Amino acid sequence: MRTYTYTRIFFCAFLLCLMQACSSILGLPSDPERSTMGELTPSTAELRNLPLPNEKIVIGVYKFRDQTGQYKPSENGNNWSTAVPQGTTTILIKALEDSRWFIPIERENIANLLNERQIIRSTRQEYMKDADKNSQSLPPLLYAGILLEGGVISYDSNTMTGGLGARYFGIGASTQYRQDRITIYLRAVSTLNGEILKTVYTSKTILSTSVNGSFFRYIDTERLLEAEVGLTQNEPVQLAVTEAIEKAVRSLIIEGTRDKIWGKASENLNGYQALINDYNKEQEANVGRTVGNKFPENYRQKMSVFASVEAQKIKDDYVNAKMNVGGKVGVKYFISPNFNIEASGSYFTLENENIIKRNYLVPELNLEFLLFPKYRLSPYIYGGAGAMFSKYKPQYKCQVGGGLEFMIGNNTAIRASSQYDIGFKDNWEGMVNGKRKDQALRFAIGINFYLGNK
């Protein structure tokens, strides 16, 4: 009995050590961390590396705040924490400083500044009565030639979600992801006449991922071993907001230089033409971008020809059905971006080992639906009818199938598919036995070549 107790204690200690080791391997925090400098985003370096202006521009920001009213999504009841940080004005002012293009002036808490200046004047008047009046006066406040307005106007939760998992005999693993999206609008307003000089907007995705593994197994009649491991990582919203704001400030500077709204500050600047050219290319490429940072293009043309290698297996009245290799060639004509009519011919072998073997030429006509015609990778489904010709009486059938197509070039795609053939009669091999119609299962991999240029 005592030995059994020692064994349990040893096993528990071993599991604790193993968990600690796994935590170190996975990079999980196990000790308190000291405070550090704030992290930099990729846009921070781009902002700081901009060429300097001829002269800095005095700029004011009264408020640049969350205009979404969005709360953090929660699966367990209400969550009254806001989804967007409430200090976005401060983040914008820091981005303006980092650009080295602007002189930001205090406007968010202007009342505090004016009160403090009034205290200074009162104190000087009280204790410096005999001093020169000029020495008692304060220098005037800077005034802004341009005001920045706007804010965080959108926070979209779960724009993309998904996951993948598998379990076999109590051993399983899974992964999940969720993508949110934040959108920033920023505009420059002239204090001279109130004209809106320029408006830009940027967006940034926020990614959350989770990886989990589990083990659940009976190792004996009354012994159950269960283990779990998991790791979740959420992209900080504050860093996402910072990067979007920094991107907006950089865009504002480059567009303002291109459109000559900064006056003398941007005249004859060296190095900016290359930045403007790159920015224009980014804008042109961005025309076709959709949610999820995807750039769909019309890869597929009106017509295509294809060829594939097939593995075929009959399901008929005899036993020991054998899988054989055949082929298919055909042509497709697109009646719309999603639908096409397919005409094809294939070589099909029906065989039951040591019983019957028969070869067929099979013309088919299908209507195919392509789910994402403007993306490189797209699933598709199809259905239609066909005939099976040999030296015997022709047989007729219908078929359904589906698969994936991936564009490897501007005109070339690889296709993988499976197809199920259903006979109208039970006599493909010349025998009728039972109520089930003859059937066949076919797997194919091939190439699809689109005719013409984009």
Secondary-structure topology with pairs:
Layout: H1 2-25, H2 42-48, E1 57-60, E2 65-66, H3 88-99, E3 102-105, H4 110-127, H5 133-136, E4 146-168, E5 171-190, E6 196-220, E7 223-234, H6 237-258, H7 272-285, E8 303-315, E9 323-334, E10 339-352, E11 356-370, E12 377-388, E13 395-407, E14 412-423, E15 439-450
Parallel strand pairs: 1-3, 1-4, 2-4
Antiparallel strand pairs: 4-5, 5-6, 6-7, 8-9, 8-15, 9-10, 10-11, 11-12, 12-13, 13-14, 14-15
Helix pairs in contact: 2-6, 3-6, 6-7
Organism: Chryseobacterium oranimense
Keywords: Cell membrane, Lipoprotein, Membrane, Palmitate, Signal
Pfam families: CsgG
- In the CATH scheme, the class of one domain would be Mainly Beta
Task: Name the structural class.
Answer: alpha+beta
Task: Describe the largest sheet.
Answer: 8 strands, antiparallel, barrel
Helices, by number, come to: 7
Mean pLDDT value: 83
Structure in words:
The strands form 2 sheets. An 8-stranded antiparallel β-barrel has the order 8-9-10-11-12-13-14-15. Strands 1, 2, 3, 4, 5, 6 and 7 form a 7-stranded mixed beta sheet that branches. 22% of the residues lie in helices and 43% in strands. Helix 2 packs parallel to helix 6, helix 3 packs across helix 6 and helix 6 crosses helix 7. The relative contact order is 0.09. It has 454 residues and is an alpha+beta fold. Among the domains are: 142 residues, Rossmann fold (3-Layer(aba) Sandwich), CATH 3.40.50.10610; 149 residues, Porin, CATH 2.40.160. The radius of gyration is 35 Å and the shape is elongated. InterPro entries: Curli_assmbl/transp-comp_CsgG, OMP/PagP_B-barrel. It comes from Chryseobacterium oranimense.
